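Retro notes, item 3 of 5
We never archived the inputs for the iron/sulfur cluster complex last cycle. Fixing that now. Sequence and ligand:
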Amino acid sequence: MKEPRWKGKHYAFFQNRECEYFPCHEGVAEDAFNCLFCYCPLYVLGGECGGNPVFRENGIKDCTNCSLPHDADHYGYVTGQFDRIREAMRDNDSEPR
Ligand code: SF4
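Structure as it came back at the time:
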């Protein structure tokens, strides 16, 4: 099977091992731990993000147990959701600023 064009590219992978929280989530090998999407772009998609969120009683979405954006192999999945992110942002921002 052909590798995706982003595989092995520097723009698709970044690590900051100096970060006080590295690695901030469990479930991904340290060498494959991608910090590029530190603040997950999929957060705005609510329960349809494709990850493993938990919703607290107060409605806050808790991503503590999710490692989806930190897996180097998920770069294509995350960037493949940008049309959905744009639509979600448009729907959430009906008032012009
Ligand atoms: S970190 Fe995981 S659960 Fe949280 S928004 Fe991203 S994909 Fe969804």
